[in-house]
Design brief:
Blueprint (H helix, E strand, L loop, with lengths): L83 H34 L14 E5 L10 H11 L4 E7 L17 H11 L4 E9 L13 H16 L4 E7 L6 H16 L3 E6 L8 H9 L7 H8 L4 E4 L9 H18 L5 E7 L4 E2 L2 E2 L5 H15 L6 E6 L6 H12 L6
């Protein structure tokens, strides 16, 4: 979930004047001779003789008459003659057209491929393997949720294939520390979940905004910050959580400090018999796309497939945030999810749980269109990608983001399309 810290608090020129001036004076000057020249004032005749007499010279206060021209027709330029300005404009238009084609043709080709990727039928058996998860908001550990809420959640999840709950216990401070007050309700929640849902694990969802694209945020390049994150993880495990799920964003592809942090966290969690889990960025839909996008926008968004694999080999569980994809249609979004599923399966070792995110939230903004990014499209895309790449992968599932924004339609699509269970009574 991009900018997940904004979605974890559980609540979350038509006046243009086109009038024309009706008072325009279109009158013509009648004071012109037959040659189109303005005539000078003539002196009053004093005799009735027909003899032509020369006109007197104009007085100092009287303007001289205009001299008629021999050719009143203005010189016209040849219609085929180009001015420097017209040549510049033509070159500019051609350049813009070439740039548009360079940008649009690959995009159209990629979108067409996504649409084709959404065709066909998923293989039989590409359903839940009992490895699914759901992100839960902070209300579950800050005292807002009561025992009745836990029972209702258990009734909804029972028999669906959900095994892990990522309960928001952060966010981390920018220095990597975490106050115990942030998850003060864990001691009540975790035993209650175990009673209502035996075998379901409760993990602490920890995250923060990284200072990779702005001056504020958590800085992984600082050794003291990484050490503080490890100590915060030690504290949540001591509080009873059975794993730590990290969502640090925006995390750029190739970040070695992140890999070093995962190595330290893995040593800690495995020593405690706990799970190390991460939320992962999407994989480059085209080769090196994160580098191109980062150069154009300053936000490289995707990871290379190789980097995704490096992360996956260091954790027990990796959940792809396969939403906020900028796709405008369900078919394109579903084809995109199918592609991401295949890419992630190729990069993830079979010893690591791979989960594909489902959009259990509804927003309309740049990057996410609610009419396109639907649960049915995501489920079909996941099944298609799984069918084509590794239909028998055991350690595979879906992760639902997020409980407090989900609708009944989302739950129905998950149950019928993936879990194949009846709705709770």
């Amino acid at each position: 979930m991009e900018n997940s810290t904004d979605r974890t608090t559980d609540g979350s020129d038509g006046g243009r004047d086109d009038g024309r001036d009706g008072g325009r004076d279109d009158g013509r000057d009648g004071g012109r001779d037959d040659g189109g020249n303005r005539t000078a004032a003539q002196p009053e005749e004093t005799t009735d003789t027909a003899t032509d007499t020369p006109a007197p010279a104009p007085t100092p206060d009287e303007p001289a008459p205009d001299k008629p021209t021999s050719d009143p027709t203005p010189d016209k330029k040849s219609p085929h003659k180009q001015t420097p300005r017209s040549r510049t404009l033509r070159r500019a238009r051609r350049t813009l057209l070439a740039v548009a084609l360079v940008l649009l043709l690959p995009l159209l080709a990629a979108e067409t491929a996504l649409r084709v990727n959404y065709t066909g039928d998923p293989a039989e058996g590409t359903r839940t393997r009992g490895q699914d998860a759901i992100w839960l908001g902070h209300a579950w550990v800050d005292g807002r949720k009561k025992d009745a809420d836990i029972e209702a959640l258990a009734a909804r999840l029972r028999g669906t294939g959900i095994r892990d709950l990522y309960v928001h216990a952060g966010p981390l401070e920018h220095d990597g520390t975490l106050p115990a007050s942030a998850y003060r309700g864990a001691a009540r929640l975790i035993p209650a979940v175990h009673r209502a849902l035996p075998g379901v694990r409760v993990q602490a969802w920890l995250g923060d905004v990284l200072a990779t694209e702005s001056p504020d945020g958590l800085r992984l390049e600082r050794a003291a910050t990484r050490a503080a994150v490890v100590e915060s993880t030690r504290a949540v495990l001591a509080a009873g959580f059975e794993g730590a799920h990290f969502d640090l964003e925006p995390l750029h592809s190739g970040d070695r400090d992140y890999l070093g942090l995962l190595d330290d966290l893995r040593a800690l969690t495995h020593a405690r018999g706990a799970v190390l889990s991460v939320a992962a960025h999407q994989i480059d839909p085209l080769p090196a796309f994160h580098s191109v996008w980062g150069t154009l926008t300053g936000h490289p968004k995707w990871w290379s497939q190789a980097y995704f694999g490096e992360v996956a080999r260091r954790v027990d569980q990796i959940a792809v945030m396969s939403y906020d994809t900028m796709q405008p249609l369900q078919s394109l979004y579903g084809g995109y999810v199918a592609q991401q599923t295949s890419l992630a399966l190729e990069a993830t070792p079979p010893t690591t749980d791979l989960l594909m995110g489902l959009p259990f939230f509804h927003e309309n903004r740049f990057g996410h269109w609610d009419h396109a990014e639907t649960v049915p499209a995501a489920v079909r895309g996941v099944r298609l990608g799984l069918s084509r790449t590794d239909a028998d992968r055991v350690r595979f599932g879906v992760a639902l983001y997020v409980d407090f924004a989900a609708t009944e339609a989302d739950w129905t699509a998950y149950r019928e399309g993936w879990a194949r269970t009846a709705p709770p009574e």
